[in-house]
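Example record for the data management plan.
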Amino acid sequence: MNKKEANKKYLDKICGCLVGGAAGDALGYPVEFFSWREIQKQFGAGGITEYQLDSQTEKALISDDTQMTLFTATGILYGYTRGCLRGIMAPIEDYIYMAYLDWLTTQTKMKREVFENPDETEGISWLLDIPQLYDNRAPGNSCLSALKSGRKGSLTEPINDSKGCGGIMRIAPIALCAHMNYKSIQKIDLEGAKAASITHGHSLGYMPAAVLVHIIHCAVYENQSSHRNLYDIVEESKHAIVQLFTGNNNLTVLTSIMDKAILLSKNNRSDEENIRQLGEGWVAEETLAIALYCSLKYQDNFSKGIIAAVNHSGDSDSTGAVTGNILGAYLGYDKIEEKWKNRLELKETLLEIAEDLCYGCQMAEYGDYYDEAWLKKYVYRKKFQNNTSI
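Corresponding structural encoding:
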């Protein structure tokens, strides 16, 4: 059995993770800055429960959360391809950083400027060829300011003291790369923290990203035969983060809010009341906690999970996105209701990226296998189109 066939069994959950995250994001995006009272006033007592379609495209629009998630993925795949074809590569977070600079291009240049002068647009990501990604969808200030600074933040050299949720909401693809042959899940977790620290320097800005990576990775790769309860996976992630960041002064804050989310998920009070006790999700530890609460309480029902995750006074798109990432990874793409797949903006791009993450680069430095589409995207950095000049 070749590597591609061996990884095929993971595709459903990888697609579920990416499309699920985008679905939660798109559901929450229209009410991102609404209070719970305002949500109820506009959508009724139960809050928002269906996509609000854009009047021009008739699509459920994604926010900056899913935009950056896609760029995270292409950064990983570009770097990994370089390693396969050249036998050498930089740390993967360096390529993720370069991909984030590409995302910054989409937020600071006009579409017309880019597509009229394509040769003047440098970057590593073929996503620069997708016009929809040039729309501003309420990008986070910490992400923008950090990337505009010309410096790459790291765990050892923080770029700021931000613990906003911009570090965690984009990080899911790091958990979906078993083909990259990390020696341990701890290294994958750490990679999540490193990628978040590019723009968020507070330890509560990057440690929750490591927790999320651990949960998603276990749900996709270690739950195929054992079918572990999501509670067990979350408990394991909590212990893993303590080992990874032993001595960090903010560990107690993080593990305490995780414990609170676990406890609240077991009571019978309303979701809005429980979520209010966890915060509003503007900072990463609260985003993680709200997503854990919703995912644990509704671990067998994707729809109920993301609906609960967006109906509160807070950062609804990010809490919806992270909840969708977790439940999509845990349940798989086939168990996501069709209504969340239909009319979702860039769904086909999400599925294409998911497949690339699942199978990885099949070519090697001295191998004979040739993949024109892969080379086009991850070497020449252009969107692949059959029999079409770009």
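Summary line stored alongside the record: Residues 64-86 form the longest helix (23 residues).
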